[in-house]
């Protein structure tokens, strides 16, 4: 037998024989010594004391110590406490008691040793878990150092890029701005957290905030143009873009954004739009002049003939005697020439009709029509320094309209409102609102903060060719009234108590 084998035998003898016997003996001696004095005080104290000895042996020494304790307890109880006393024989009446005692002792041994093994396994698992936690902590510390190094390198890169760059956390709070953005703002704290919205132009803040909140909710990219206040207090146009950074599970951890200065491009675009507006106005003026010349040319001959025949008719009636027959014939010619003039007017009107078979109608949402119009007016409103506010009813009924014609009405009223506020030094606000006027009608209002409509011309503003503008034609509001009335509606104007004019028109709700 080798030394290693002898060592294993010796260790096994110690672990499975000597150690269990020693532990069981200690507990049994203690139980026996306590039993003698307590048996004069309480009945059968040995039962509880020896059960405790068995439990302690199994707990501290394991299953083998528990079995040894059961054997010793059985021998000691049989010899000292079961009749006949001081004998290893058992009386017939006590055999069942001894059997029950041994069975309970074995059960206690099994339970205690199993509990000890379970707690040992728990301690071992806890120790293993703590070791794994330490290893994982070390890995995380190493990973954090790598992340910090990557962030340091990224920050160096962002400082070197000649653009305004910022970073936000997963909830959208800005936590970092590069040097270029800090230099433009003058105070870096204005861009951190939620205070960034305070450096936006008031007219752009709401749209910017809505777009940013939508991007945070959906996780999509963010792209919007807005005016940002610089350190000198002036605003410049910037294209603001941001993209999210996702984890492998798809969770957003950060947002990275950039500001691109588009002030010069925006000024060029505004200049182009102004030139286009002037060109369109000139084109409309020329077209109207051509149309007026055409109408004058077409109506000149029949009207001249009407006047000539009218003079002739008067001469025939004033002659002595009156030539009634010739006067009647001349009157017929006047009727013919008048009918011809009417045909000329109808032909001119037909030039403006797209559908000769009847008016075009389709079901439409008036709120959506207004939103589409506001998108078209946004640039023009910014150029005029006018803010547009919408007050749209949530439960607005649908209407059957010609969308192009009704949008032309809205566009005309909105342009008139913005022009009416051109001389106002401040607080230029155009309010467009909708509501259900009744069960069968909706009401659309366009209100400005200008000087209002003088009371003596309120009833004339919708008359053709009536205008208060130096270069106006007086056809815009007249055309609006024609379109609204063709839709079985009504249009009117009033002055707001707070100042400004309120144009309103009603349309039949779709049933």
Name the shape in a single word: elongated
- Helix share, percent: 55-70%
Q: Please report the number of helical segments.
A: 10
> In oligomeric terms, what are we looking at?
single chain
- Please tell me the CATH architecture of the largest domain by its name: 2-Layer Sandwich
The count of β-strands is: 12
Q: What top-tier CATH class of the largest domain fits best?
A: Alpha Beta
CATH superfamily of the largest domain: Histidine kinase-like ATPase, C-terminal domain
CATH topology value of the largest domain: Heat Shock Protein 90
What order do the helices and strands follow? Answer: HHHEEHHEEEHHEHEEHEEHEE
Biggest pleated sheet: 5 strands, antiparallel
Q: Rg, please? A: 51 Å
Structural class: alpha+beta
User: Strand order of the main beta sheet, please?
Assistant: 2-1-5-4-3
Beta percentage is 15-25%
Amino- and carboxy-terminal Cα gap = 108 Å
State mean pLDDT (0 to 100 scale).
79
Q: Please, how many domains?
A: 4
- Unreliable stretches, pLDDT < 50, 5 or more residues? none
